[in-house]
Amino acid sequence: MKPERRTWSRLPDAELLQLRFCDLKLPLAGTALQRRLQHVYGELARRGIRFRPHMWLAEEWFSPDGIPGIAVPFYLAHPRLMRLERRMMRQVEGGNANWMMRILRHEVGHAIDTAYRLRRRARWREIFGPASLPYPDSYRARPGSRRFVQHLGDWYAQSHPTEDFAETFAVWLKPNSDWRRAYASWPAWEKLRFVEEVMQDIATRPALVRSRAYIEPLSDNRRTLAQHYREKLARLSDWRSEAADGLMLRVFARKPRRSSATRAASFLRSHRRELLTGAQRLSDADSYMLHQVLRLAIDRSDNMQLYLRGSQRNALPHARWLLGSLARLLGERERPQLNL
Fold it and tell me: In the chain, where are the structural domains located?
């Protein structure tokens, strides 16, 4: 009798986390990932584009500079690992067909940019900006801007010129995309039109960069799953702290506009009851969570030396919005602690 394959799928979480990535011996063949990639190949073919990016398993989603391919996260290759990802991170990025296809189209945009060295074109730089700009650790989005398409969420196209291109390409590639009408009055329409023109130009040409190399493949990765999640949770904690400070700065100011400006912390303390009552009506957070969020807002306002931008009366609705937004950002169930 042949031994059962992938017996690790029956391990409890604590034991599974002790395994190294290379021990998983995960295949890509026969998975939903491979089927979705073939689906994207079909979308490219219908556009008359001969380029086909290659795919491999890694720790995260990425398309490396200089390699016209796509790394996809390991957990999408097995249901047991998707359950672990959901327990650790409270979501599975790309965990359903629609979400996976949206991310794949975005990553194909990066890969085709690399394959044909599109970012070197003067017109590309004129429309999207220089790809050589440093990649930011965080960015402040402008939700009302119409200079960027909306695809993955969080106004991701605004984070960097290369992401702007990949998001624009994804909107253009989607089957039955109605971008001509949907973006007709947007400045982003010019970007979509450029993508269409440049895709027509390169459609039948061979790629300039043809490397089929794998960067950081799972099969060579000797890190444990516990190490991976410990670092991922730490990054998430840092991001949430930065995002919380960004919300604070949308409501309060670092420098007072007048000498008599009210300190934000004093305002929050003195209007504690009405803020909690108002935030309770505006959010799904429970009373305990809102009390904790208000304490955080007071402490951060003190540390950041924030002030009201105008009158206390005008600040009240903005402060209620702030508490609700902070509750949504910080109010998820606590992630598991890795004491391994």
Answer: 7-220, 225-330
